[in-house]
Amino acid sequence: MSPSSPDPRQADPPQAAPQQESPRSAGPRSVERALALLDAVADAGGPVGAKALARRLGCALSTVYHLTGPLVARGHLVRTPEGYAPGPRVPALYRAYQRHHGLGGPVGGLLAGLRRTSGAEAYFTAYRDGRITVVDTTAPVTDTAHPFVPGPEARAHATAHGKALLAGLPRPLRRRYLDAHGMARFTDRTITSPELFEAELARVRDLGFAVSVGEADPAYTCLATALPGRRRDGSVYALSVSLPTADFRRRHGEVRAALARAVPLLAEALPDHAAGPTDATGLRIPTLPES
Asked: Does the reported pTM lie above 0.85?
């Protein structure tokens, strides 16, 4: 049986009567469903069966097979006895994404060096075209409990790297970003008030760095600073580290110093980057709130 053929042993879950679609709307809707299916597989902890995907997408089982056939053929998905999983094409897409952000050997080496000197996981984050994304990290892919992973950053207002990037944007762009992505509460320390958040970003601009103590994850503190300048396409970058809050309280001096040393090196390593002045070497760590 081919990957795109329905399994006759599997019955379609009960479905509402499908709505009639015009030829003009069927194409975009199929693309949207295919992308939603890819997201569902990517977000799962393991292979996902066709029935589970049908429930997740709210569509017929036959629709899932119709969508997965081309995705398997192109290598975006692979079909295993347990269900669908990310396919061999995915790593190439991730490498292409990094390449478009100018990442290569020097940048990866600098992140690894920051990890060694700070004793904290390091991150390279970008604002581009209205989105904030963790582009690369030193956190092992096997560490599924780690709170910050490569991909779209849905908690930018609660992370140090998100604050550092948003603080440098013109206010209209920042407002547009927050209107589009919201300010959800993740812990009791998350700032959800636009007025308080603007005050926080003013402090970020004044200090030259951002800190988040348990705002995205109650156990972690992250420290970040935006790289000086921006690329010609308007991209803005930030370098950050994260570690358990107890460790940060004990070692914040060496963590601060390691981040300060890495910022100008990373800015210089990025191609097509219009660098500007920075006061990263003067990072000051504020008094952290009590646990």
From this structure: no
